[in-house]
Amino acid sequence: MNDPGTEEPIRQAADEIEPTFDGGQDAEKEEAQEIQEQEHNLHDSNLWWFASTGCPLLAGTFGPLANAFSICALVRSWRVYIAPGETAASGDRITDPGWLLAVNAVSLVIALTANAALLLNMSGRVRFKIAQPIAVLGFFFGGVMLVALTAALSTAPDYDLSPGSPAAPGGAHALSQAYYYAIQAAIIYWIVTILMSLTAYGAWKGHFEAEFRLTLAQRTLMLQTMAFLAYLMLGALVFSHVEGWEYLDAFYWADLTLLTIGLGSDFHPSTHTGRTLYLFFAIGGIVIIGLVIGSIRTLVLDRGKKKVSARMMEKKRIRAINSVDPRKHRIQVARFQTMKFDNDDLTPAKRRELEFSVMRSVQELAERDRKWMSLVISTFAAACLWFIGAAVFFVTEAEQDWSYFASLYFSYTCLLTIGYGDLYPMSNSGKPFFVLWTLLAVPTLTILISNMGDTVVAVFSNAVVWIGSITVLPGEKSMSATAKRAFKQFSVGRSDPRELEAATKTVAPGVFGESRHEGGEDSKHFDLMTNNIAERLSTHIEDEEIQEAIEAQERGDSYERDVHFYHFVLAKEIRVMMQHLGASPPKQYTWPEWEYYLKLIDNEAAGKELIPETLRNPTTVSKFKARPKDRQWTWLGDESPLMGLKSESEWILERLGATLEQEIRDQRRKLLDKDYKQRTPPISLAEMVQQGIIKPRGGSGSGGSGSTAIERA
After folding, report:
1. What total number of domains does the chain contain?
2. pTM of the prediction?
């Protein structure tokens, strides 16, 4: 059940298929709408987020599993006769009454109809208001019929379902595997009914749209799950004929084979034909189960963790805002972490830097807490699967005299896919439960192993690298530098208080209280920011660009020179952002880098919806949640670039593209209207001259004698 490394190929295949599956712009529009809806629901309760997303996905995945179990409940009679010296597993069939077969078949048809309605609803083929009632009622009545049948059979005296029941002592009757598959199918039907009812209730109450359309990753998971179940059932059908097994025994064998458990002592191919077919059947099944595991990782871990991390970040952000103490000049970003600021030395620049530092700490702490919380939850789920599974096997295999410790041992070896074969289920109730239990173990252990990779494995890996760097494999830096870097990593989120002394000059009180600083921007900070921006811009100045700037300057058109340079920089930075997209882990930018990008975007041509000229804090959390059109965002607000589901690269790239698009519109207007005055770009080559990045040079140019050109410093 380990991840075979199919995550990256699946992601690449999804990227290639998506444009052709939905059609170019439609796919991009669907993805944008998905992100927008998820960000809109960011502040909803966990219940309604689960109802709108988790419930339909679980129902669509487990519904086909219940249908498969219903088919297993129909292929064999529910009772067996145990002859003297025989066991229940080898008992002779007792033909079920016609009405039992009829009701069982009707239950399967109703459940298949419900599952089809659910899938058509998710693919957008049938409206939610039509498909949802069919799905809910279909799964409900399918489960009711199976429960009624199992109850009637188990409560009848001596399993006597007259007329037509054979005369036999009560102790000589037993229930077959099909009976227990029916019970499992009924339980899953009712679980799916509850999930879909919660979704219908949430949509009826208006907590989310009365519509659910699967994304490509969700479609992939559901289709691969159905393909695996179909492959499992068809394989069982083939081997039951080749090896002469009962179909349900072949189904059990196919399950433990494809999941690479391989107990081996109870069922294994013995014929030449069976062993030949096994070579192809096993490798095909392993490929399919590998695809399922890869889809689980992509859907649950890659996308689900973004949602969980964003929600945890939102809670920590609100808690940090409410913890601000203007009198003591501190803000508590975590239970044992406090940042200090000084209202006597508040400037807009320092206040923005403080907001960024607080938000970055909140972001890092939320991600750290998410990783360890996910590990605890997945460990608890795996432990429950282990201990509860052992308890069930302890009961079902009582005839083998299994102790609970033996059941734990058997469960552990099966969960790790070791499968020694010294113990294996033999009862008619144990084999169906084993199939269900192992299928549930696939997503459970996949998530657990991935969460361990993000936490425990990462800690051990870093520790091994660190030990190696100070012993047998020293790095480029000294041992002391390595130790300091390691200490800094272990103390993530703990910032130097001297770097966090900042606030803001405001007329009205803000998040950090009322400022007593009446001065303007910090001149030192402004000079430092200008130097950083100039150094960053210098990387875009190429010889060709300098030559074009020289020609523009010789024509006496410095404004045209700066506009051209600004467009050139925007295009270059968009290319840089494209390289940062999809980075793992996502690219995080430093405060100087954010200042640089905000400088590029902070142009009147871009519009205030991209980045306002100044940042202003609301006074209360309630104002934080309000979204008036003229309200300007803040680093600690719910519209902060560090909040939401978009990566920082996506946020910057979207606004750089919008800025460049607006600039091109202005250029077109200027060509059509000579009196149209284009807005001044936020950067210019003159700044490069002032910072000494490039310098004027005398001499005659192509435009005439005595003109001044520019060259690299």
Report:
1. 2
2. 0.73
Helix (H, G, I), strand (E, B) or coil at 22: helix
**Helix residue ranges, H only, 397-503:** 404-415, 430-454, 456-470, 479-490
- Torsion sign across C-alpha atoms 380, 381, 385, 391: positive
Residue 400 included in any domain: no
Cα 494 from Cα 496, distance rounded (Å):
7
Tokens representing 160?
A: 């006597």
The candidate with the shortest Cα–Cα distance to 203, out of 136, 149, 253, is: 136
What secondary structure does DSSP assign to 103-133, as a single string? Answer: HHHHHHHHHHHHHHHHHHHHTTSS-HHHHHH
Mean pLDDT in residue range 400-417: 93
Query: 81 - beta bridge partners?
Result: 92, 173
CB neighbours of residue 11 within 10 Å: 16
Query: What is the DSSP track for 37-48?
Result: HHHHGGGS-HHH
pLDDT tens digits, 417-434: 888 888 999 999 999 999
Domain that holds residue 599: 523-712
> Cα(391)–Cα(401) distance, rounded to whole angstroms?
13
Domain end call among 279, 296, 313 = 313
- In 3D space, the residue among 282, 336, 355 whose CA is nearest the CA of residue 636 turns out to be 355
For 643-679, give the secondary structure using H, E and C.
CCCCCHHHHHHHHHHHHHHHHHHHHHHHHHCCCCCCC
| Torsion angles phi and psi, residue 284, rounded to 5 | -65, -40
How far apart are the C-alpha atoms of 699 and 577, rounded to whole Å? 39
pLDDT tens string 610-650: 443 333 333 333 333 333 434 445 777 777 788 767 788 98
Beta strand segments in 201-292, E: none
Task: With beta carbons less than 8 A apart as the criterion, state whether 181 and 104 touch.
Answer: no
Q: Is residue 425 in a domain?
A: no
Q: Which residue has the tokens 């870093």?
A: 462
